[in-house]
Amino acid sequence: MAKKAKDSGFNPRGFIISGILLMLIFSLNIFMIGYVYNKTTENSSVISREMNCINSSNGMLNNIKTEVVEFVNGIGSQPGHIAAITAMFETIDLKLNEYLSIPGHNENALYRLKVAKEYINAYSSKLAEYRDERSRLIATGTQEEQIAFKNRLKDIYDQEIAPLQTASSEMLIASIQIATEAANERTMSSVRQVYFLMGVLVVLLIVFEAALFFFARYTKRSMEEIEHKNKQVQEASSKLSRSREKMEAAVQTNFLTGFKNRYSLEQDIGERLATEQFNIAAFDLDGFKSINDMYGYDFGDEYLVQIADRLKNDFAQSAEIYNITGNEFVFVFHREVSDSQAYRLVENIVSVMNAPYTIFNLTVQLTVSAAHYHYVAGDCLNVNSLLVKLDNVIRNAKRSGGGQILPVSDL
Asked: What fold does the segment set 262-407 form as a domain?
């Protein structure tokens, strides 16, 4: 048999070595593709957490501005404004500290966020200074001193407070922009790595298939081996395609509930704001923080997952559903849904979210504050201002005790 192989010119030793090397290359490339996919998924999770922290902080700054303006102009309960401002500054501090605890930040974005944090601390200190001054005057000051202080409030706001608020917001926005650009670059870098690995795989495949083809002329076995390698290439390409699809979905989706996130909402309706009218509603669980504080974040996460499953099953045919923050959901109703139908759906959504849920053998039930908005073309410049309107209405509902559905006023 050995003599016959020699006479035919077939070298089984070279064939075996080529086959082993080809398998090693395939295994290495498959391993690298899996590695790139895992890194991209990890980056997407970090990006989502960073954006959540920064956008939540910026949204709170806008809410604080509203509270301060109302306080300065004597609108609403003064103690209520002070309590709300204090609570929101505490939330901002928690969110920014959470952001700083995330590893692997872009240096420029991190620098601007730290500067923003300094401005926010100065902003908070300045407000606390005038809050204490107000308390002192109420306790010990004369009526003339109190009136004089009240008359100075607008000048104090314009000259000392507003510049700090503006600088804080601008630095946060700059941090958002830089972080977004860095995130896009990281994603594109991962995609380029995948394409590079595909190119290397194709080049090496061509080289080794040429070698295998030389040996395959003398034996049917060699031809079968080549077909086997081609099948492996197809499987590797299929895995790569699935990995790319998962990467794109991870950037646009809330990983806990599976709903689209705030960035998907901006992409989906941003261009519609100037030309279309539609019904949109936002829902926020009342007292959800107490659930996390009492039972832990795993319990709170499972609670949100169960609510999300019910919302998806019952309302996905009538609206596009977004999970823009931890316990806040936004519904953009389809065009064929009328105004009256939309309001009935809002009531049904509240009923579903109000229902009792059993988590880890414990039954919990929270009320829901909701804002319904019949949006008319041109009402808002961007998605952020639209969400601010919805969030302001929800905040008013919570101040009134929660568990209410309030419309967004056209005034």
From this structure: Alpha-Beta Plaits (3.30.70)
